[in-house]
């Protein structure tokens, strides 16, 4: 016979009570997040939400995930596959909260009832936090096991950057920053949900006024989007930057970049759009891209072997010193460091743009190239032990997954071994 420890029944009741309180807290926070998303949150509620976010990095990470519509959409689809109504009822029942009729399919119901964003947020928070599971029973998650072992999960990058204004002042940007930032010349900069938008409708350029130059810089583990004063949409990958005037004047629109940047240029034949690319050697103007209106990607990280410009739509001209090349959709022009001649190729466009679309995609990609992408997005350092130059990978994974999941997938092929110590990942051939 199994002996129950003294006070066992009381212990179980206490544990259930704790779970109930945790669930109520999770659903309360989900409700505050939904109010924040709808701009209907009160000052007092905002203070409560900020207090919860500042409690731990985990809470902040959850908050950033729940600000992402795609994350909520994925959660809803997963809930649709499971017995959604049953599990949602369990979550709310344990919290002692009444719930309206939810027997209709989630995704279909979502179209007419915004409350499903709130329900999805509550369910997602409780699932990730480990307080209530969609499925029957309870179990320790892989993340909980890592925490018990003293190994902290390395979360993926997020929307964050630094805006440097003309006077040298800096504004920290992330997915939660909302409001208006003023720049000289009556330029308004709107910040919302991981994107800056420049409004020059009130711009007044004086005869002697110097146009303000702004710079947006993403750290490792960051990305950001900006709508330039002319309406051009720009996406910055991790460890990248773009400098541009707060209002375009003169005969051209010129910006300077480092790292990796994707452009959707607003068409204006009267004002050519030029991109000056900072090379690995640090010389601005080492490569220039000229365009009237097109979509293209530039990869010019200092640790890459070459600078690459890939056209998705339209036409661009790349140039360096006295050489140049015209490229059209589906083509890529690359030029190696310290070289003067461009090479043209036809890459996998889906792979080139995977970062912008929230994914990693590899097509027979070497380990070192793959790990450089991982280092920039997860803000980790990479070490090598042994020769891995002959190892290549093909496949894809979401950039929203933590680094452990990505490494686990790569290891599953049996050709490489990863050893993580803190934020350093050692790569070894698996022999």
Question: Which range best describes the helical content: under 10%, 10-25%, 25-40%, 40-55%, 55-70% or over 70%?
Answer: 25-40%
Number of strands: 23
Unreliably modeled segments: 1-19, 75-84, 102-114, 126-150
Helix count equals 11
Instruction: Supply the helix-strand structural class.
Output: alpha+beta
Summarize the biggest pleated sheet. Answer: 6 strands, mixed, barrel
The side-by-side strand order for the widest beta sheet comes to 1-6-9-10-8-7
State mean pLDDT (0 to 100 scale). 76
- Principal-axis shape: flat
* N- to C-terminal distance: 49 Å
What proportion of the residues form beta strands (DSSP E)? Answer: 25-35%
Oligomer category = single chain
Nutshell version of this structure?
It contains 11 helices and 23 strands. With 431 residues, it is of the alpha+beta class.
Topology:
Elements lengths: L7 H30 L5 H11 L3 H10 L2 H13 L2 H11 L11 H5 L4 H15 L12 H7 L9 E7 L5 E5 L4 E5 L3 E6 L2 E5 L13 E5 L4 E6 L5 E4 L4 E5 L7 E12 L8 E5 L9 E5 L3 E6 L5 E8 L2 E5 L2 E5 L4 E5 L6 E3 L3 H4 L6 E8 H12 L2 E4 L7 E7 L4 H9 L4 E6 L2 E6 L2
Parallel strand pairs: 1-7, 5-7, 10-11, 20-23
Antiparallel strand pairs: 1-2, 1-6, 3-4, 4-5, 6-9, 7-8, 8-10, 9-10, 10-13, 11-12, 12-15, 13-14, 14-17, 15-16, 17-18, 19-21, 22-23
Describe this structure as you would to a colleague:
The protein has 431 residues and is of the alpha+beta class. The longest helix is centred in the N-terminal third of the chain and has 30 residues, at 8-37. It has helices spanning 8-37, 43-53, 57-66, 69-81, 84-94, 106-110, 115-129, 142-148, 349-352, 367-378, 403-411; strands spanning 158-164, 170-174, 179-183, 187-192, 195-199, 213-217, 222-227, 233-236, 241-245, 253-264, 273-277, 287-291, 295-300, 306-313, 316-320, 323-327, 332-336, 343-345, 359-366, 381-384, 392-398, 416-421, 424-429. Mean pLDDT is 76; it is low at 1-19, 75-84, 102-114 and 126-150. The chain is 29% helix and 31% strand.
């Amino acid at each position: 016979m199994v002996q129950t420890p003294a006070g066992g029944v009381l212990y179980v009741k206490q544990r259930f009570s704790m779970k109930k309180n945790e669930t109520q807290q999770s659903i309360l926070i989900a409700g505050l997040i939904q109010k924040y998303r709808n701009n209907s949150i009160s000052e007092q509620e905002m203070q409560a939400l900020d207090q919860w976010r500042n409690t731990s990095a985990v809470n902040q990470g959850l908050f950033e995930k729940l600000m992402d519509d795609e994350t909520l959409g994925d959660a809803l689809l997963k809930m649709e596959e499971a017995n959604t109504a049953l599990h949602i009822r369990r979550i709310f029942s344990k919290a002692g909260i009444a719930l309206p009729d939810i027997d209709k399919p989630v995704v279909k119901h979502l179209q007419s009832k915004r409350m499903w964003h709130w329900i999805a947020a509550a369910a997602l928070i409780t699932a990730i936090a480990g307080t209530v599971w969609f499925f029957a029973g309870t179990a320790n998650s892989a993340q909980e096991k890592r925490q018990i072992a003293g190994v902290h999960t390395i979360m993926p990058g997020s929307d964050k950057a630094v805006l440097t204004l003309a006077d040298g002042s800096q504004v920290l940007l992330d997915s939660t920053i909302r409001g208006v930032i003023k720049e000289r010349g009556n330029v308004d900069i709107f910040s919302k949900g991981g994107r800056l938008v420049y409004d020059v409708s009130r711009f007044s350029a004086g005869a002697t006024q110097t146009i303000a130059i702004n710079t947006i810089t993403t750290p490792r583990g960051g990305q950001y989007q900006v709508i330039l004063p002319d309406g051009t949409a720009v996406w910055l990958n991790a460890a990248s930057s773009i400098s541009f005037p707060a209002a375009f004047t003169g005969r051209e629109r010129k910006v300077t970049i480092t790292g990796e940047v994707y452009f959707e240029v607003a068409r204006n034949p009267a004002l050519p759009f030029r991109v000056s690319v900072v090379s690995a050697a640090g010389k601005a103007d080492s490569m220039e891209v000229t365009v009237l209106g097109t979509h293209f990607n530039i990869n010019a990280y200092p640790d890459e072997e070459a600078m690459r410009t890939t056209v998705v739509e339209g036409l661009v001209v790349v140039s360096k010193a006295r050489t140049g090349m015209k490229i059209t959709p589906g083509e890529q022009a690359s030029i190696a460091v310290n070289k003067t001649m461009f090479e043209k190729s036809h890459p996998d466009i889906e792979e080139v743009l995977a970062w912008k679309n929230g994914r990693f995609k590899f097509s027979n990609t070497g380990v070192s190239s793959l790990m450089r992408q991982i280092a920039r997005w997860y803000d980790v350092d990479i070490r090598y032990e042994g020769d891995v130059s002959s190892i290549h990978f093909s496949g894809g994974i979401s950039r929203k997954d933590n680094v452990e999941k990505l490494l686990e997938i790569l290891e599953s092929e049996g050709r490489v071994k990863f050893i993580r110590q803190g934020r350093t990942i050692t790569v070894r051939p698996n022999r």
